[in-house]
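1st attempt posting a full record on here, be nice pls
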Amino acid sequence: MLDIPGKACGSCFFCCKVLEIDEFKKPAGKLCEHCALTGGCGVYDTRPDVCRDYYCRWKDERSFSSQLRPDKVGTLLMDDPDSDEYHAVCDPEKPFSWRNPLVFRHLVAEAKAGRLVVAKAGLRAWRIFEDGRWQEWA
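the predicted structure (as tokens):
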């Protein structure tokens, strides 16, 4: 896939913090030890498949404005690779980042399109419904 102008990771390394990476025994919310804070991955060429397979929706979605960049809104928007769910993954230190109006409006739109939408922060999760309601989800 071709890069979209203006949609580079740059100084954003939010995915390296909020995602759990079993191969590195890295829990959600802890910065990956291989993350180079100036940008990039210290083990990029040998990174595990979970990192290779991940793609940032913000980088790949033309309709996502610069305001939706994960490190700016505190939420990573992504398709769950193991199901048909749509996830908003937040830093456990800021578990309600998904309630940012820009993010929430997008999540409700995904739910209206028939997706099962889940916001996650560490071990907590909330389901978002097409009418804008949400509830904690176990």
